[in-house]
Amino acid sequence: MISEEKRINQEAKNKLLSFMREGAYKPLSYNELIQAFKEDSIQTSEFEKIVDSLLEEGSIIITRKNKYGVTEKMNMVPGRIQGNKKGFGFLIPDNRDIGDIFVPAENLNGAMNNDRVIVRLTSGGSDTKKSEGEVIRILKRANKKVVGTFESGKGFGFVMPDDTRIYQDVFISKSDFNGARNGCKVVAEITRWPEARRNPEGVIVEVIGHKDDAGADIISIIRAYDLPEEFPPETESQASKIPELVSEEDIKKRKDLRNRVIVTIDGEDAKDLDDAVSLEVLPNGNYLLGVHIADVSHYVFENSYLDKEALKRGTSVYLIDRVVPMLPKKLSNGICSLNPQIERLTLSCDMEIDNKGKVKKYEIYESVIKTKERMTYENINKILAGNDPKTIERYSNLIETFKHMEKLMGILNSRRRGRGSIDFEFDETRIILDEKGKPLEITAYERGTSERIIEEFMLVCNETIAEHMYWKEVPFIYRVHEDPDIEKLQAFNEFIFNFGYHLKGINDVHPKVLQQLTDQIKGTKEERIISTLMLRSLKKARYTSESMGHFGLAAKYYCHFTSPIRRYPDLMIHRIIKEDIHGKLNEKRLLHLQSIIEDIAEQSSIRERAAEEAERAVEDLKKAEYMKDRIGEEYDGIISSVISFGMFVELENTIEGLVHMSNMEDDYYQYDEVHHMLIGERYRKTYRIGDHVRIKVQNADITNRTIDFVLA
């Protein structure tokens, strides 16, 4: 965690940066800088640490003449490199107002994917669309270890990285093979970083198994994304001391809700049940919605081994047939899981909601519950559809409650859509594996009424909590989705114009405009591609200490409160809420929270991105493996995107493959960039997004997780 000293240093860093950003400032030597910057609160002994910290993060830089200047004033931009398999890269700047900067392969100067670097602009400016740069300094290396396939030669070997964004193979001396053989999946630790015309060098530190061995594929992805399967001994030891049952002493201090009708509603396979709901219709016709969340913070104390490990992981990761949990199973599947008919400690939010979906009043408090049933999405969908007498009879005492839930869900959804919230209707993928991890079935999975009930209930609860804590004016972690970049929206607007659509007020766009577009395209053949490109045009949601609103939800205040078993931000804000309830947020505590909260938010955002990438990689892997057994088979599909070298076709089961232009042999095809379509030179046949085509599976590359189709 972050100390009070760090908070003071951050203030000093900000003051020094402000001083160096002044128009009159010219680069100074270290001694000149310390003399010119007269700040009584900063001791000379601390000044060097502050300068070193600013150098490390790339905010300032030392010139060849040993002068200190601000990076941004010297035509330089700090950020993170995003590699490409073709060898070039892009700088993703720290400053979110600056667009991505292209870095040619010859200008990477040894930088690898995800490295933090400083780039000097060589053409274009930081405020232009097309700018290029050169890496002049590598601030922090990201790839200390690389996962890939080992290939041996005479006296040496290479590791070909699984991550294609790391385009160089890692050279391995024979003495560093450490048991690795040709075709093995391995983890290599880099001992020498790449230079111009020189590959990185490394040593094999783990042999996962042969690339064709069952399970080696998913283990490779787990290693690549640094997802620790085992918990450190001290963390497990701490977890083992936590009781399995709630004590009477703990119950006494809380509001007793054990007689309230409360249920959990989750997927059939879920074991970490962290949210439960209750609903009553009040005499005035309003609804009393209760959202009851596992009180994980009661067992996971700040700065404990459990807490430090949870922050390091940031989130639980769900990889089809396994979970890499944020907390040990003793907590996630045990004392913190809201299992049926067992006392559990919770943090509750009761909301009185009227028939227009407005929260009239609410109460947030510590509670103890005893859920009546562990409901599944499938069973509630059956009940509400009214076509399964056996299930209806089994839960007859809850039928009326579920019907009220469905009605309230509709009310909340209407209110949310009324203010402009955007709903993206993408089918999820359901993958069923056998006991050896081989994919047996892949299908599209559509959300039913019960999934939407839980979604709406959690959304209104998260908003209520966020607004409540915002007006408390205490340090907090918000979930924000910033307004979209105008240039990206303009490009999107040009694209949809080809389909006869247009966005109004693009310079100050309201989410309602995008919502109206999603309504217009519903059911059309271009729906999926326009929705996909719209999503790509928007910024990515993230965690931060500042309440900046949520564009996609058209919400002024938003946070994540409802999943503390599997998300660290939720766990942290539970602590803050409980401390507020008990009056423990004194000045000293507030200053401490202020000093740590932004770093926690940043770490949580980083681990969330890693989890999403890992989950997507495993899904793509299993899709390629599934289609490997279906080469030569034909399927109907829809063109999901058109690019300069071909087109992607998506099948009904959500699997996507590439039809390469070189395999379209009936004509010579040209790519029409403006209209996003392929046009045959001779016969003028066209292929555009949304067209239905029949394809044959040509190839499936499990290693690269890609699938190739040809037109049937």
Q: Quick summary of this structure?
A:
This protein has 712 residues and is an alpha+beta fold. The protein has 17 helices and 33 strands.
Helix content: 25-40%
The count of domains is 5
**Low-confidence spans: pLDDT under 50, at least 5 residues?**
none
Shape call:
globular
- Order of strands across the main sheet: 5-4-3-6-7
* Oligomer class: single chain
Strand tally: 33
Please give a structural write-up.
A hairpin with a 4-residue loop joins strand 32 and strand 33 (706-711). By secondary structure, the protein is an alpha+beta fold. The protein starts with a helix and ends with a strand. It folds into five domains: 4-71, Winged helix-like DNA-binding domain superfamily/Winged helix DNA-binding domain (Arc Repressor Mutant, subunit A, Orthogonal Bundle); 75-140, Nucleic acid-binding proteins (OB fold (Dihydrolipoamide Acetyltransferase, E2P), Beta Barrel), CATH 2.40.50; 145-213, OB fold (Dihydrolipoamide Acetyltransferase, E2P); 233-478 and 556-617, no CATH class; 630-711, Nucleic acid-binding proteins (OB fold (Dihydrolipoamide Acetyltransferase, E2P), Beta Barrel), CATH 2.40.50.140. The protein contains 17 helices and 33 strands.
